[in-house]
Task: inverse folding
């Protein structure tokens, strides 16, 4: 939100350059995008070809990146959300750390979406990139939850039931620089329509993930 031009270089101009090379070499391109390209209103799942209306700089530049990639005939645009994996920082690692340090956490309960485990996502992408079923896709683990419900399941699966989890509203939570979507529900029907196996339930993904990390 602060470094707008750098954000645009990464999310729009970089993919545009890659798309040009892919066009010259006649090879497909896969671009990772986000539910942040939608306005986050309502309670219905966002469809793959639904109207895009970003809420923040990040979402706007990812949308611009999508437009650049769509110029290429052979493209996959994969929108993901609430991502966690073995490497890097993520919500699960943060919850486990705060749970151990403080014994209690306050978590937003009015933003709803689906977590995405990078291991499950990668398996899908390997299958997808070997086809010519191009276009926009949504790929997250199955099922919906709020961030509060996500946190509760993390502590349950980790055997940390002693941690107190308090639900709060977005309005009560300290303001983040980037406006967050309340509705991050995204339809994954296109995966099914094109014969791709959908990702496992998010609770199953959390349980498997906790066995892969040290905490």
Result:
């Amino acid at each position: 939100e602060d470094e707008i031009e750098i954000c645009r270089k990464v999310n729009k101009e970089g993919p545009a350059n890659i798309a040009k090379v892919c066009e010259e070499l006649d090879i497909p391109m896969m671009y990772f995008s986000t539910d942040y390209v939608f306005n986050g209103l309502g309670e219905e799942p966002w469809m793959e070809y639904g109207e895009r209306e970003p809420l923040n700089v990040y979402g706007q530049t990812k949308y611009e990146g999508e437009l650049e990639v769509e110029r290429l005939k052979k493209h996959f645009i994969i929108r993901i959300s609430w991502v966690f994996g073995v490497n890097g920082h993520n919500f699960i690692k943060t919850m486990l750390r705060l749970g151990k340090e403080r014994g209690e956490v306050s978590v937003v309960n009015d933003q709803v979406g689906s977590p995405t485990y990078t291991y499950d996502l990668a398996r899908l992408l390997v299958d997808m990139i070997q086809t010519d079923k191009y276009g926009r896709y949504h790929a997250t683990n199955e099922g919906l939850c709020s961030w509060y419900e996500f946190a509760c399941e993390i502590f349950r699966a980790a055997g940390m039931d002693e941690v107190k989890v308090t639900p709060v509203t977005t309005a009560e939570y300290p303001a983040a620089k980037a406006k967050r979507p309340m509705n991050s529900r995204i339809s994954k029907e296109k995966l099914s329509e094109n014969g791709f196996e959908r990702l496992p339930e998010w609770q199953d993904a959390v349980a498997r993930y906790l066995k892969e990390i040290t905490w």
Remarks:
- The mean pLDDT is 96.
- Strands lie at 29-34, 75-80, 83-84, 104-108, 112-113, 116-117, 135-138, 145-146, 164-168.
- The first strand starts at residue 29 and ends at 34.
